[in-house]
Specification:
Elements (H helix, E strand, L loop, with lengths): L3 E7 L3 H17 L4 H4 L2 E5 L1 H9 L5 H9 L26 H14 L3 H16 L6 H11 L11 E7 L5 E4 L7 H8 L9 E2 L2 E5 L14 E7 L27 H10 L3 E5 L3 H7 L9 H15 L7
Parallel strand pairs: 1-2, 1-7, 2-3, 7-8
Antiparallel strand pairs: 3-4, 3-6, 5-6
Helix pairs in contact: 1-3, 1-4, 1-11, 5-6, 7-8, 10-11
């Protein structure tokens, strides 16, 4: 019998996916279900890691939502001074078109989830030497500036990354001895950009393992999954993350993870963008300009979704 209560899973989905998830959570809270308060565990991957840090910050969902609406010209969260990047002739990341081309090639060649993760890590390590050595520190400073609090929350939260050397899962929590900003920086590190090191070990985005990593919610009676990318109808727009292959035979797709959770006795609810939310998120989910429309659409969808969540 499952004894743990509720796990909230926040998947990867770029800048607009992050804002959509905050909108969903604010909408649900406005309709009477505060997942930020109700969740016994929050699991965050990639942009979902940033959302998890906000959800677990103690800031009410309505304030998190309002901070997105107030974003133009500044990041969400408290304003902190950021160091200016030093002069350099090296880029801070590869062009996104180049990155996505490599992701597609790696995904097409991989024959297993393990091979995919190792190849993605090798790509990240290969490009690290081509980038400005200061880029990783600058990226870490940017991530830290966007966190409501620098410390890990007291209540359970897992931030998912991947060891770039081995391709193995790195599930960080407050007991890992890793600073929250380092864990979130690792979880959001797309191969082809700065590759952060934690205790001397390079890491890449947890989205390389799974867009959602919902399997980490095993043992919870109820699981709510907010997934900007998974289970959408049709392929991702060109130039997104379609190169990071998901396959039922590999078990790294959301449907397989949900089936395993349900087989083990969990009640699972999956929320993915509806038509209005998908339109608001746009074709480039990395574009910060889509964040406000995505958050607003998420708020409306969250209010509507409350009726099918029968707990709480």
């Amino acid at each position: 019998m499952l004894e743990k209560n509720l796990a909230l899973v926040l998947g990867g989905g770029g800048a607009s996916g992050n804002a959509w998830m905050i909108g969903i959570i604010a909408g649900l809270a406005d309709a009477g279900l505060d997942l930020a308060e109700a969740a016994d565990l929050v699991i965050g991957t990639s942009s979902g890691a940033t959302a998890a840090a906000h959800v677990r910050s103690g800031v009410p969902p309505a304030e998190l939502y309002a901070s997105i609406l107030a974003e133009p010209g500044r990041p969400a969260g408290p304003v902190r001074e950021r160091p200016s990047p030093p002069p350099s002739t090296l880029p801070s990341s590869l062009p996104m078109a180049t990155v996505f081309e490599r992701l597609r090639a790696i995904g097409a060649a991989a024959t297993s989830a393990e091979e995919l993760r190792r190849a993605m890590g090798a790509f990240a390590l290969e490009t690290a030497a081509q980038l400005d050595p200061a880029a990783a520190a600058q990226r870490r400073a940017l991530v830290a500036s966007r966190l409501p609090h620098p410390e890990w929350p007291e209540r359970p939260m897992i931030i998912v990354a991947v060891n770039a050397h081995t391709g193995e899962l790195a599930a960080f929590d407050r007991h890992s001895g890793v600073e929250l900003a380092d864990a979130v920086t690792a979880s959001t590190a797309l191969p082809g950009g700065p590759t952060p090191s934690i205790n001397g070990v390079p890491h890449i985005s947890g989205g390389v393992r799974s867009a959602d990593n919902a399997d980490l919610a095993s043992g919870y009676a109820d699981v709510v999954i907010l997934t900007p990318f998974s289970e959408r109808s049709g392929p991702l727009p060109p130039g997104q993350f379609e190169g990071i292959r998901r396959s039922p035979e590999w078990g790294n797709d959301l449907a397989s993870q949900v089936a395993a959770l349900r087989k083990a006795g969990s009640r699972v609810e999956v929320i993915t963008p509806d038509d209005e939310s998908r339109a608001a998120m746009g074709t480039n989910q990395m574009d910060p300009a889509n964040r406000i429309p995505a958050a607003r659409a998420g708020l409306a969808q969250g209010k509507a979704e409350r009726s099918r969540l029968t707990f709480g």
